[in-house]
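#structure-requests
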Amino acid sequence: MKIQNVLVTGGGGFLGKAIVKKLVEKKLAVTSFSRNFYPELENMGVVQIQGDIVDKNLVVKAFKNIDTVFHAAAKPGMWGPYEDYFMVNVKGTRNVISACIENKVRQLIHTSSPSVVSDKKDKENVNESALYPKKYLTPYSETKAQAEKLVSKVSNKDLQTIILRPHIIWGPGDNHLMPRLIKRAKRLKRIGPKTCLMDTIYIDNAADAHILASEKLEENPSLSGNIYFVSQDEPVNPWDMVDDVLAAAGLPKVKGNVSTRTAYTAGAFFEFVYKIFNIKVEPPLTRFVAIEMGASHWFNISRAKKDLGYYPKVSTKEGLLRLKKWFLTLEEKNNE
């Protein structure tokens, strides 16, 4: 039976909206489940259900007559109370799973993160056999790992699942990573050695990976339960990438450099102070950011290539050109 009716949680978000666009292009009946209403989705003919995935009854109701769910909704960020992350990333995912089972949804494509296997060590050419660490540096990573485990446990013939781990999604429309970079551009300093490498993934490629996961799972149900890293397949120095993004925005390169150890120590200090004084905003630096930007994090995507036929259609170079055009368009609109 061919997939016809699909739902995207977080359909108004950066990744969710990109997935929605791809699904609409394929002439599927698309529903978005998000907390807010988005005119852009309405213009695409997408059915919008407003709600919070923490509300189980609402999620169950929204999933009626759905064949496939793309679960992209999550609480991102590197700072905040553990409970806030748990409610959305763990309880929310539990509700999504329950709603899928109750409504006999056939597929669940779950968006995870490579940070679920991150620790203080370099990650170089790591594949899906990497173990979860015993301790996490951020509630985001910890709760995303818990969510992954929940999805893995329920994968069977009745609910087929695939888990994707895209690393650092970027591109036009990013409302999370790039605004933070631009806001802090003048205060940034490079962390770590020039030799460290990091994976990223352009937004359209990340969306493609999700669509491929659903299509290949339909063709081959034995893929159910699998986890896949997806990326540009082109590791870059994280700070070279930051410089490229800043250049696309018309901003100068990052100046100055500190060691990973120094940054990690500074991050620990900031975390301590912010917790002691119950400061709600994100610290200027955390231990996780120091490790993420000052150590290697790149992953082997051979499994995604083999099973899903995934290859990044948009190169990093092309993605940066598109990003620059997007920034110019924004500037023109702001000057009108």
